Structures are given as C-alpha cells and as structure tokens.
Amino acid sequence: MIHNIARGVQAFTSNAFLVAGERTVLVDTGANFDAVSHLRKDVDVLDAVVLTHTHPDHVGNVDTVRAAFDVDVWGFDPDHPLVDHSIADEEELAMGSRTFRALHTPGHKDDHLCFLSTDGEVLFAGDLVFENGGFGRTDLEEGDRDLLVQSIERVLAAADETLQELHTGHGPSVVDNPYRDMELAAQAARLY
C-alpha cells in the first residue's frame, strides 16, 4: 500500500508517502501539517523515514515524526543534521513489501535521490520530475539544469515502459503511462 498522507493538506508541503508492508516507511515527511495524526490513522509502527532530499517542504515534519515513532531518518547526506543514516547511490533498501534501488539524482538539490523498485514498477521521484512533463526547479541553491537533465536521463535509462506508478514530490501520482511523463520531462528540461 502506498498512501500520500499529505493529500488534501492546504499548506506549503511536499507529498509524504506512507509505504506500508513488511517494512513500513515514510518517504519524505512533508511540512506545515500534523503528519503524526495522519500517520496514526494508518499505522502504529513506522520502521524508517527515507528522504528524497532535504528541502524544507520535504523535511519540515521530520522531528515530530521521529519523536512520535522513535524512528531513524535515512538520506543521501550523512552530514545533514536530520539524517541519521546515509543511503549510497545504487544502494538497495526495503520499503513496504518491495526492494528499491536508490539513484543519486542531483540537479534540483545536491542530495536528491530517486527510488526505483527492483521490479521496475514503482518510482519515487521526489522533485526530479512531475506529472505531464514537469521537472524540478533549478533556480534554487544547488540547482543545476545540466545536472538535472543528466539525472532525468539516468532514471529514464534505469526504468522502462513497465513502470506503473510514478510518485512525485508535488502534485498527483501518475499511474497512466508514467514513463511517458518522464520522457516529456526530459524533453522539457532540455528546452526550457
């Protein structure tokens, strides 16, 4: 089960995906809403928090979630004060009932990670790509358009048309031909 606990929240936040199963994980915590009460509706135990990156809208609720569930936080940059354990590029980790491969995808932020299930069916893209060919901002600190394009192309090469679910950092998840939305994002990022 994958459930966006931030769905319908009227605040400046990212999506925050609860991935339930053998290892229950929250992918990003969002910000500026009561994530703990949203989580408690679905689970009593959280095994880990996994971060796509450390922009404030993705990590604002880390401290309250960590305290409420006595859970460790995993991310790319072990020197970041919110990250307890590092995730290396190409490292595999269990989330829900699947195994995911971490892909270091800078361009939006230096510590950005995407998580592609090893069966190729599910991708957590953070702020790399969005629905309908949208792509992450590169005008913020650590933003780099050329790196972003390379990162999108890397994920496109790792995935293929068997991708069934694209869960993005903002906006709706894409379940209707998500690979096409990623191809559109690559095209758009090269042009604009």
UniProtKB/TrEMBL annotation:
Keywords: Hydrolase, Metal-binding, Zinc. InterPro entries: MBL_Glyoxalase_II, Metallo-B-lactamas, RibonucZ/Hydroxyglut_hydro. Pfam families: Lactamase_B (PF00753). The keyword Chaperone does not apply. Gene3D superfamilies: Ribonuclease Z/Hydroxyacylglutathione hydrolase-like. One of its GO terms (molecular function) is metal ion binding. Its cofactor is Zn(2+). Residues 13-170 form the Metallo-beta-lactamase domain. SMART domains: Lactamase_B. The keyword Metal-binding applies. It comes from the Archaea. This is Glyoxylase, beta-lactamase superfamily II. It comes from Halogranum amylolyticum.
